[in-house]
């Protein structure tokens, strides 16, 4: 069992929160020359094995390599949930964008009275910093502002995984239209691409019992493997009605990037872009059976090393 597994088993939630905060604050004070060593330490603590950054072969090790040696300003702009909209508009068209209700530099600027009954708030510069509001009447506005303010002060890269491209994002808040599909929630369709070629896809459903994922080949036959991260495997999910369109758009958006995960929603017969992610699951996902990690690692061609803000990490 990894150190993380032991900690989750024996430490109360408050202690785990304290430990995560201590790691974050420590990382914020590190000299960049330490990032590589600390990334390897973090990976070993969470996964129970070393991460090979010298000669990476598996897909997940290569994703961790990309964090240090391919974190460019372009990736930061496209990981930014506001700035990416212009790129999507120019590359595949306005129709794929979830309608935008507002963008602000501070939560104090948000006029909640002017927003519709349902909406989604997101911090632009990280992962998972979202507030889904299904009924505004039940929203604790003061608490919402505090959460957003806290997120704006945080650096995604320093949480432990050193996803350095997030350092190029611009911390802001966006508000998007609330979407719901036929599942009663909002299912994610996520397409893993290597230089624009779709390798496999997986669905993500979030419910009261947690997160469920199912993995599929590009033709939507169930894959002979599962690609999972802190989630349960779902039963078979029907192919999206507009699968061919999703595949085509994923190929266009993923072209030119060694590894990019392109996310979509399908609502009322329309395809919406969700986000583009360059370091899926912070490099912590795993394959079952594990041999597919090497199979897809062989397909993932790493680019030449690039310095981060002038420093070769």
Automatic annotation (TrEMBL):
It comes from the Bacteria. InterPro entries: ATPgrasp_TupA (IPR029465). This is Glycosyl transferase. It comes from Actinomyces glycerinitolerans.
